[in-house]
Amino acid sequence: MTWQTRISAALEERRAADAFRLRRPVSQGAGRWLMQGDRRWLNFSGNDYLGLSQHPQLVEAWQQGAARYGVGSGGSGHVTGYSDAHAGLEQQLADWLGYPRALLFISGFAANQAVIAALMGEEDRIVADRLSHASLLEAASLSPAPLRRFIHNDAQHLSRLLARPCSGEQLAVTEGIFSMDGDSAPLADIAEAARAAGTWLMVDDAHGIGVCGPNGRGSCAGQGVAPEILVVTFGKAFGVSGAAVLCSDALADYFTQFARHLIYSTSMPPAQAVAISQALTLVRGSEGESLRARLGENVARFRDGARQRNLSLTASTSAIQPLIVGDNARALAMAERARERGCWLTAMRPPTVPAGTARLRITLTAAHAPQDIDRLLEVLDGAR
User: Fold this and answer.
1) pTM as predicted
2) Confidence bin at 354 (pLDDT 50/70/90)
3) Could you say which DSSP state residue 212 is in?
4) pLDDT digit string (tens) for 305-331?
5) Domain that holds residue 314
6) 114 CB contacts (<8 Å, ≥6 apart)?
7) Which residues are catalytic?
């Protein structure tokens, strides 16, 4: 089979399954509104949970950072790309989240790949929640360590898998809030299972940091858990992009020496670090508390309205509110009908989600007004 034949067959298979992905250029894609040229839609597909991507203080912070440092870092952090803005943000994060060290990465995907690639050997084992993010499962699949997947949010099944003989070390892996289902992991039970097995725990809290826990410190702080490795990202509630790994001094030193994604990538622009630092100030302060409260009110309003209209939602209480449709073509059609009526929704289909669980991944933010939620409910009711 030639390259062209292979590529053509794979693309045709995706199209035939109504699973072909499209990218749509937008004029503005974050915040309350999504815009294409002179058209706009209420945006219920983004991850800007607190609406900070449009916050004037963050915009000003990035501008001031660019004026001071320029628009790029100029190199890897191991060469010339590690600035006092990076160092200051790492220290802020470590202090806020209660860890000895924090290391910045260009993205959450890169952070997850780096941690697993640097840590795991062929005699080790990774035991991950079966619905963990693609970055985690791909990293595990590419590592020399065998991957075992425990039943979603089932700490007892995790315990049974961890109890099996392993000649090396084991790493238990989960998310704090799951990106496609919006439900929360029982982190206290999972941490206890890992502790009982003498195993390290890694938690990716991309969708929890900033929106839950005391002062927005995330899922782990909310459940009184301190995993050995905590990954947080800044492209959701913080409204920017990038990620950080929180860990011990020794582990941070180890990653600094052996994490190839850290060593061989140009570091994030210092101006971005300045903007993230300002976002952290807002997230942990009184404005952050107010935005989290508003987000909670929007989630409650949406779920109450969905019940009244017999819209079948999952049990999620987070900003992620999936409406499971099942069939790919039907999910695509519903998303298109919603867009025709002024609400931007996206159909999530396999392989992003398990087969037979195509859905509208509805996301709510603190930037939405009550009337936006009511309009969404009307549109969903008519799109079925």
Assistant:
1) 0.93
2) confident
3) S
4) 999 999 988 889 999 999 988 888 888
5) 23-49+286-383
6) 105, 245, 255, 259, 260, 261, 262
7) 47, 133, 175, 179, 204, 207, 236
